[in-house]
Design goal:
It is built from 14 helices and seven strands. Strand 1, helix 3 and strand 2 (61-66) form a beta-alpha-beta unit. The protein has a seven-stranded mixed sheet with strand order 3-2-1-4-5-7-6, sandwiched between helices. 42% of the residues lie in helices and 13% in strands. This is Ribosomal RNA small subunit methyltransferase H.
């Protein structure tokens, strides 16, 4: 590793504090304690969770997926000391089954998902994820492909913009914001985050800007989710990840807003609930739960973690263990991926 590589590895470690790392390792450890055990870190980011697993669990190796080439490169340098115990792959995490097939893996012992925007993406001003600094309206997690936030704001009609803001940002002033966007873009396309913040300032009543934190947060979240197809990807990825788990394998998911957490809760509940019709005197084996929930509801960060790591403020962690193969009648069919 060159001096520049070493500095970039240090940068990755100092710029990102993994959320609930000890708890994630604790939940995954029983499934990763045998030689040859494999964890898929489905959202590698800058590699903090993977590094924690590789240090704590000497039998484990990790396949790390990320759609962001910059994050993948930084994590790769950070994890270089672990040699062939780490494999990085440029992929979106709903591609997990295909990635594992290419690597010759029929199943894995663990899956970890740390959802949402990464510290790297927030910190890089030019990526346009932050409403606190003026930058191009981009917001793509993979900046090499796909639509940008500017494309959404300048090409979607008023009704579609309002829907994005209302559904993905839970923004009660979605209609007013959409009308102001359409009015502004009639003069010139919106291209900068600062311009969008000005739109929000004009569209959201003063009283609505006084509570609930920065009102731009909801709109920026909504646009980011739309640009990256985050909920569509998650809805496909959750059942796919469960199907990749060997019996005894474990899945741990960290979500950061209610829309994500709702999908996680629903997907794990399907596997942890009997599918037998009510009233049967004996539950057929094929209808017995194939997952066991490892958390009571969603776990949150304690005060110490929140003070140490502000990103943990909104985390909701859920986990489950695979008890048996998924019955044929419950195996999900994978929806087609949204084209870029």
């Amino acid at each position: 590793m060159t001096a520049d590589d070493e500095q970039q590895a240090v940068d990755a470690a100092t710029r990102h504090t993994p959320v609930l790392l000890e708890r994630c390792v604790e939940l995954l450890a029983p499934a990763l304690d045998a030689p040859g055990a494999v964890l898929v870190d489905a959202t590698l980011g800058m590699g903090g969770h993977t590094e924690g697993v590789l240090r704590a669990l000497p039998h484990a190796r990790v396949v790390g997926l990320d759609r962001d080439p910059q994050a993948l490169a930084l994590a790769g340098r950070r994890l270089e000391p672990f040699g062939d115990r780490f494999t990085g792959v440029h992929a979106v995490y709903d591609e997990m089954p295909d990635v594992l097939r290419r690597l010759g893996l029929t199943s894995v012992q663990g899956v970890l998902m740390d959802l949402g925007v990464s510290s790297l993406q927030l910190d890089e001003t030019s990526r346009g994820f932050s409403y606190s600094q003026d930058a191009p309206l981009d917001m793509r997690m993979d900046p090499t492909t796909g639509i940008t936030a500017a494309d959404v704001l300048n090409t979607y009609d008023e009704k579609a913009i309002a829907r994005v803001l209302r559904v993905y940002g839970e923004e009660r002033f979605a209609g007013r914001i959409a009308r102001e966007v359409v009015r502004r873009r009639a003069d010139a396309p919106l291209t900068r985050t600062g311009e969008l913040v000005d739109v929000l300032r004009a569209a959201i009543p003063a009283a609505g800007r006084k509570t609930g934190g920065n009102p731009a947060k909801r709109t920026f979240q909504a646009l980011r989710i739309e640009v990256n197809g985050e909920l569509e990807v998650l809805e496909r990825a959750l059942p796919a990840a469960v199907e990749c788990l060997a019996v005894g394998g474990r899945i741990v998911v960290e979500a950061y807003h209610s829309l994500e957490d709702r999908l996680v809760k629903r997907a794990l509940a399907v596997g942890a609930t009997s599918s037998a019709p009510p009233g049967l005197p004996v539950e057929p084996e094929t209808h017995q739960p194939y997952l066991r929930l490892l958390t009571r509801g969603a776990e949150e960060a304690d005060d110490t973690e929140r003070e140490r790591n502000p990103r943990s403020q909104s985390v909701r962690l859920r986990a489950a263990e695979r008890l048996r193969p998924t019955p044929h009648h419950l195996r999900a069919t994978t929806a087609p991926r949204r084209s870029a």
